[in-house]
Model the fold of this input.
Amino acid sequence: LTLINFNARKTYFDGDFGIALRTQQLTMQAAIPNLKRFFYDNQNYNLLDQYHYLIACSYRVKVSDIINAIEPKIAYNEMRNAKAILDLGAQIALAENRITVNGIYHTNNSITAGMTTTIRKQFLIALMYTANTATVQRYNNAELEIGLKYSLSGN
Done:
């Protein structure tokens, strides 16, 4: 497969599978992206970031009125033909859980930092910044993601 005929690939149906268990404090997650590639080896194209599976666990601890909660999290990403990545991070909730600040260290020597804010329980704005590893920086220095969410029900 080359870049020239990348768009000439056949169309196929694919999907992801994920499951989560969540209580007021504990969250456990598992996901298998790209199920067709997971079960059939003939779908392993020469693509980057072919995640095999992801597992994650976090525990939310209530702290005080100023810092509402701290939630440490650990995640493990298994990838095909690459080293697995372990993520260690934490999220801090402030201002009655309307503002969150988080940071994640990835064992591929990159870091992610982010912040979210909720306005009137309906509108959420999220910003995430990832500084890439030194080996990738000659192609791409960093990534900035912006997420917007609007809840029709106000929850």
